[in-house]
Each structure stands twice: as structure tokens, then as C-alpha cells.
Amino acid sequence: MREHRIGGVWPAAERLAVLVDYRACAKDLLRKAWRFGQGLKVDTITAVVVSDRARLTLPGRTALASTEHLAEDLEITVVDLPQAAPGCSLPDRLVAFLRERNVTHLMLGQAPRNRLEIALPHAGRWATACRPENVHPVYSGFQVA
């Protein structure tokens, strides 16, 4: 790599990450990610848990366990988003995590707010992790909690 002045590694295969938490809509998102991944023939699908397990109530922990069980059935790897130093925001931690794993596609659930936002979704800070066309917001079945 040094001989050819290559600065670092780059993704050699398609990898999909999907953000999940304790809400029931996470199961729907996992199924959609699995179908999407099959269509793209991705190498790896990773479900990234963004909930702080220590703060979850018993029903929340039960729901998250059920989501993890579905991920296992779909052969999706489940990983907790690493906790970072105080002051490091969730988007910053997620971007670092995605870059570290060379993720090429990010699927996230997003609650629709109005018709314009549905028609013209924006990926916001998530788009910095990969090319904006590889951020896939999913609206159906999501409700504001």
C-alpha cells in the first residue's frame, strides 16, 4: 500500500447496518433491512442497538430481547453501539462506528413529520458516514414515541 501511496482501506464488499432500539417498529425495520440486503447481495448485515440497556424498563428490555431474537433468526449480527466519552454525540459515535466497520449502506427508521419531509427526506448528519445515496430512511410503520 505504501508503494502505491494508498492512504487506507476502503470497502471491498457491500455492508449494511440498521439502527434498532426497543420499539416494536424495530422488528419491521429488521425485516426490511434483510430484504434490502438480499436484493443488494450484501456481505454483512449488522443491527446496531442504539438504546442504553441500563436505562430500559422491563418492557423495553423484553422488547429489545425479542428484536434480537428475530435478528438471530434472520442471521443478522447484533452489536451495541459503543459508549463514548462524555460530550460525544450519538451521530458522532455512529459515524465513527460505521467507518471503522466499512459500512456502505445505513438503514434507519424515521418518523414522518409532514408530507414535505416524507417527499424530500434528508439524511442529516448520518450522511457523513457514507455517500448520501446509501442512507435509506424507512417511514412505514414508524410512530413518534
Describe this structure in words.
The protein has 145 residues and is an alpha/beta fold. It has a single domain, classed as HUPs (Rossmann fold, 3-Layer(aba) Sandwich). Helix content is 33%, strand content 17%. It has four helices and five strands. The chain starts with 14 loop residues before the first strand and ends in a 7-residue tail after the last strand.
Number of domains: 1
> Strand arrangement, largest sheet?
3-2-1-4-5
- What does the overall shape look like? globular
Q: Could you name the CATH homologous superfamily?
A: HUPs
Say what the CATH topology is: Rossmann fold
Q: Level of helix content?
A: 25-40%
The chain-level structural class is alpha/beta
CATH secondary-structure class:
Alpha Beta
What is the architecture at the second tier of CATH? 3-Layer(aba) Sandwich
> Total helix count?
4
Stretches where pLDDT is under 50 for at least 5 consecutive residues are 122-129
N→C terminal distance? 48 Å
Largest sheet: 5 strands, parallel
Tell how many strands the DSSP assignment holds: 5
DSSP strand content:
15-25%
Mean pLDDT equals 76
> What's the alpha carbon Rg, rounded to whole Å?
16 Å
In terms of topology, how is this protein built?
Elements lengths: L14 E6 L4 H16 L3 E6 L8 H16 L3 E4 L9 H11 L4 E5 L5 H5 L15 E4 L7
Parallel strand pairs: 1-2, 1-4, 2-3, 4-5
